[in-house]
Amino acid sequence: MPKTRARAASLAGTSSTRSLAAISRWASGRPITFAPSTAHTRSGQLAQEGDVANWFCYVASHATEPFAQAVRGIGEDRAMTTYSGAKEFEGATFVKTSFKGAALRFCDVSGVTMRGVDVDGLDIDSHDLFFGSLFVNGVDVVPLVDAELNRQFPGRELQKAQTPEGLRDGWVAVQSAWRETVAGTPPDLVDAHVEDEWSLAQTLRHLILATDAWLRGGIWRMQQPFHQIGQIFTGAAEMGFDMSIFRVDAPAYEEILAVRAERQQLVTDFLATATPELLAEERDNPWGGGDWHPTVGDCIRVILEEEWAHLRYIRRDLARMR
Questions:
Q1: Closest by alpha carbon to 195, among 291, 79, 72?
Q2: What does the alpha-carbon distance between residue 294 and residue 162 come to, in Å, rounded to a whole number?
Q3: CA nearest to 205, candidates 174, 240, 246
Q4: Residues whose CB is less than 8 angstroms from the CB of residue 288 and which lie 6 or more positions away in sequence, other chains included
Q5: Which one has a higher pLDDT value, 63 or 137?
């Protein structure tokens, strides 16, 4: 598994599309709904692997069980067909088949080829976009998307920094952006959310968890690094994660802000004295798996990746709700 795919959930996404960071994206089991035409046969299909890539590292290494569930139908007069955890659709060919209005969540569409297709309004959100390629009319658009997001979020490019100075500057930039978002969110939207996405309050709780995983767990090697109000993805219990660590009741927003501030200060203080030698030290993957041993610098970069990814998600959703 590529180093930087170790996500977010620290996640993933994510709640839904969130994050790995992201643990990304980090990620709850999300629906895949397919509304086929009446001419649909087994050659017209969708695949759902249940690879919740936005739980950054752990899911990418261990997830085998599908978590997708259909939660809605498409169209008023069309029969809804739901595919969950299906692999027999891999390598299928679709000819003159309508996927209009269909929803794919946490599906493996790698290597899919589309020719002569109508893509008006096609909306793709992938936390793993920057670890591969996406060709549109023969052009790999990944570098273009990356550059545009760096333009929209000044300082985001420093999530890849290799020096202590660069990582410090990147942390300052993303925290400044988060302060602006938190301060600018009206109280009535703090717990509001779009469809299955996380609210602002839940997102901040997830970032607490991401910091705990990669700083307290990964870098400092604490046996139990998690705060009880951390937000983990739906399906974690089924994957064997000890859910007794976390509180069942939702904490007050004031408590979330207080714990979040504590975790932010931990990262600030750590980076203040970080040296190139320390950043080069090897650590174990905090989410398990022996195929990748991140450096201390890698762990900090995952934290930065989580921060920027979830900032984008919540700003997107808040804009829709406003």
A1: 72
A2: 13
A3: 246
A4: 58, 61, 62
A5: 137
Predicted TM-score (pTM) of the model is 0.74
The residues facing 38 across adjacent strands are none
Task: Tell how many helices (H) and how many strands (E) occur in the chain.
Answer: 7, 4
Which sign does the torsion angle of CA 262, 166, 54, 179 carry? positive
CATH class, range 152-321? mainly alpha
* Residue 34 and residue 72 in contact, taking contact as beta carbons nearer than 8 Å: no
CA distance 161 to 287: 23
The answer for residues whose C-beta is within 8 angstroms of residue 29's C-beta and 6 or more apart is: 50, 52, 66, 67, 68, 69, 106, 234, 235
Q: Where are the alpha helices (DSSP H) in the chain?
A: 56-62, 142-152, 164-184, 200-211, 253-273, 276-279, 296-321
Structure tokens at 198: 């996380």
Q: Which residues contact 290 (CB under 8 A, 6 or more apart)?
A: none
Distant-in-sequence contacts of 88-95, Cβ < 8 A, 24+ apart = 88/42, 88/45, 89/45, 89/46, 89/47, 90/47, 92/42, 92/43, 92/44, 92/45, 93/43, 94/43, 94/44, 94/45, 95/43
In this structure, are strands 81-82 and 33-34 parallel, antiparallel, or unpaired?
A: antiparallel
User: Poorest-confidence range of 44-58, 80-94, 188-202, 234-248?
Assistant: 44-58
Task: Label each residue of 143-155 as H, E or C.
Answer: HHHHHHHHHHCCC
SS3 (DSSP) at 33: strand
pLDDT at 220 over 90: yes
3-class SS of residue 181: helix
Does position 75 have pLDDT exceeding 80, yes or no? no
